[in-house]
Amino acid sequence: MQKTLHYLFDPLCGWCYGAGAILPRLRELPGVSLALLPTGLFSDEGARQMDAAFAGYAWANDQRIERLTGQTFSQHYRQHVLGDRERRFDSGPATVALTAVSLTDPTRELEALMAIQHARYVDGSDITSHTCLADLLHGLGLDAAAARTELPDAELLGANQARLGRARTLMQEFDLHGVPALIVQSGARRAVLDLSTAYPNPQAWLNQLAAI
């Protein structure tokens, strides 16, 4: 039976970036489709100003993620993102950009997510900027999504809120308090998968998932 994996995430979540080595391989599993659902965890009331204390906490956590997953958190990111006291820690713009991709070229949303994460954590780019995000999407050849990202219209914003609503409903239903989270659905049956166990040994975790 076909299975759907609902992936709950936030583009500013370091642990979600840490899952980057696992997600593309999920789509290779037979009979499995991957559905991305941004939660908006760090947008709206979840957004905040970057300060020295929060930057220090984030960097310490990022180093733990890097040791566990091998994903790079560069000095460019530390200096230009965590060191920026003017721009807010706000995933709203990146979430809107991903919704624009989901509307215009949905098969490439995971690619766009990973490019946005790389831009932040490796290149040290400001992915809280609609202009920066639009330029990034143009670079991927996602021109329609880029145009909508730079000047979000009512349809895009409405679609974005609908996606956030679906993700938050799932989080409440399964009593989830953070991301990333993965919910497997097969027919009417749904269950939460423990994604944290995949970080130290992705292949073993994938083998277990394939056997479900």
TrEMBL record:
Entries under CDD domains matching the protein? DsbA_FrnE_like
Q: Where does the record place the DSBA-like thioredoxin domain? A: 8-186
- Which branch of life, at top level? Bacteria
Q: Which Gene3D superfamilies match?
A: Glutaredoxin
Q: Name one Pfam family in it.
A: DSBA
Alphabetically, the GO molecular function entries are:
oxidoreductase activity
Could you tell me which InterPro entries the record lists for this protein? Answer: DSBA-like_thioredoxin_dom, Thioredoxin-like_sf
Q: Which organism is it from?
A: Stenotrophomonas rhizophila
Q: What protein name does the entry list?
A: DSBA-like thioredoxin domain-containing protein
